[in-house]
Amino acid sequence: MQHLKPGNLIAVRSDETYHYFLILTDSAFFGCQWTYVFHATSQILMDSETILSSNPSGFTALIDFIEERSNGKIVKMEKGIDVLPFLTFEHLRARIDEYNGAYTGRFLWFIYNKQFKILEKLEHLRTGQEKYPIGSGLKCRDAIKLIGKKYAMDFVFEVVSKGQFPLE
Q: In what order do the strands lie in the sheet with 137-139?
């Protein structure tokens, strides 16, 4: 099984398509790693320069690559890439749903610092907080779905009991 380190640019094969990720941190949250997910896909492996050049679009997320690592679907493309331009966030957000045996339809937004210390609990996000990365893990296969939707961090998804990301 391949180990992923900060500064690794990788491609993940899904069906006949490559998807591109830059690993930003060591394991940070239940095995997930902060990762920059590029809105780039290709049928043949792209070169690193093309992926990284001129203000690439994408989003930052906590990604779990365990299935892809186990199934040999990861191609390491380059290592030692400077992650600082991609690791610019100071705060995180997470929607915490309320359950009393079943989903109640209520939730709070938790605002965290990078170390997952709770800073605030809010009923509604304030201006600017919608741009914080979501402090909740995401499977790589779900991140791939978000690439296809051109997901951006300022997209706020609040459909009851559907999770924090627009996967459907």
A: 74-78, 9-14, 17-29, 32-42, 58-64, 137-139
